[in-house]
Amino acid sequence: MVNFDMMVLAGDILELKALEFFRVISRIQKHVVMIHGNHDCHLCLGKIAKKLRFVHYIRQGWVNLEIDGEELTILGVSGIYGKEKVSPLYFEDKHLIRLVSKIQESCTKADIIVSHVPPRYCADFLPKGGRGGLEQLLTLMDLCEPKFWISGHTHVLAVEKRMKSVTINCGYGYIGDFVLIDTKKEKVVISRLFLDVVNAEKDREKDFVFAIRKTKSMRRISKLIANSISVLEEDWGSL
Ligand SMILES: [Mn+2]
Question: For the segment 106-138, what is each residue's pLDDT rounded down to a tens digit?
Fold first, then answer.
């Protein structure tokens, strides 16, 4: 419905449905920048990005892309914050400190930052009121001065201006929330498509939690699914 040059996905993208996601994404043929959330097979995202040259997966770092004649640096922070949680879906202070020193060494400024969890007071409204953003992420805002900060996780579609940045929460993607950004005119449109979703949320949540409980490890289930992807790689070629 919309002509665009780049799609940014702010995490909680595929849960465990790697092949379905691959089928959709492989048809896009435009740059896709994605990070993982706390409901994603992160190994699958990595594999998909390796397979499709226009798809870029960032764990904690950045990519430089030329989009419609414009050089853009997009910095990504995957996962959510959790102290001493040994899981690839969480990051700790030490990961942020590592990222900050990498940025300082290379004097990197970012045009766009994408993180699954929003920074504090930056389009971080919670569905039942209050704010759910992470204070530590504001360091990246000071350092990189992004024009746009895109996040998700808190499920409330919102746009707020903070310092030099327009901060955007893209809300609940699978019920149709989306955001269009014109980087040149610095214009943002938030919108919702009304999709026919029948109580999908509870089942999806249940599937995901059940799969993790069964294998007792997110790392293990990610590996299992990612391995099934390589078995099916030949099928992917014919899609
Ligand atoms: Mn999330």
Answer: 989 999 999 999 999 999 999 999 999 999 999
Contacts for 133-140 with beta carbons within 8 Å, 24 or more apart? 134/81, 136/81, 136/93, 136/96, 137/77, 137/96, 139/96, 139/100, 140/75, 140/77, 140/96, 140/99, 140/100, 140/103, 140/110, 140/113, 140/115
Domain extent at residue 29:
6-237
Residues, beta carbon < 5 Å, ion ligand 1: 12, 37-38, 153
Number of domains present in the structure of the chain: 1
pLDDT at 61: 97
Distance 39 CA to ligand 1 centre (A): 6
CA of 118 to the centre of ligand 1 (A): 10
Residue 236's pLDDT is what? 45
Whole-structure pTM value: 0.88
Residue 207: inside a domain, yes or no?
yes
Q: Residue 1 falls within a domain, yes or no?
A: no
